Amino acid sequence: MRTFIGGHEAAGEDEDFRALFLGERDESPEQRSVRQAAARDVFADLLEESANDEIAMLNAAYAAQLSSVMIRPTADASPMNRLTDAA
Fold it and tell me: In this structure, are residues 21 and 67 in contact, taking their beta carbons and an 8 Å threshold?
């Protein structure tokens, strides 16, 4: 199965994940808006799953670093809180 992001074929799952949170240089404002909405949904899902899944917790922390903007659906659901709680 091939995956496309913003009309471009993605190289692999790692590239898909990074592109979702980083975006493309030449993306239009509309493409950026759609990508960011999808990234927020993925991030929220990862945060929810991270309560019981260490990999999801690590992916959520990585997503937050990639986006360099903390997307917080709830005050105590941030990946940094999850990392401190897990330690």
Answer: yes
Q: Decide: residue 19, CB within 10 A, 0-12 exposed, 13-18 middle, 19+ buried.
A: buried
**Can you tell me whether residue 67 is helix, strand or coil?**
helix
The per-residue pLDDT for 31 is 92
Per-residue confidence (pLDDT) for residue 18, from 0 to 100: 86
Query: Which residues partner with 4 through β-bridges?
Result: 9
Q: Taking 50 as the threshold, does the pLDDT of residue 70 lie above it?
A: no
How deeply is 46 buried, as exposed, middle or buried, from its count of CB atoms within 10 A (0-12, 13-18, 19+)?
A: buried
What is the SS3 assignment for 5?
Answer: strand
pTM score, whole prediction: 0.61
What secondary structure does DSSP assign to 15-62, as a single string?
Answer: HHHHHHHH--TT--HHHHHHHHHHHHHHHHHHHHHTTT-HHHHHHHHH
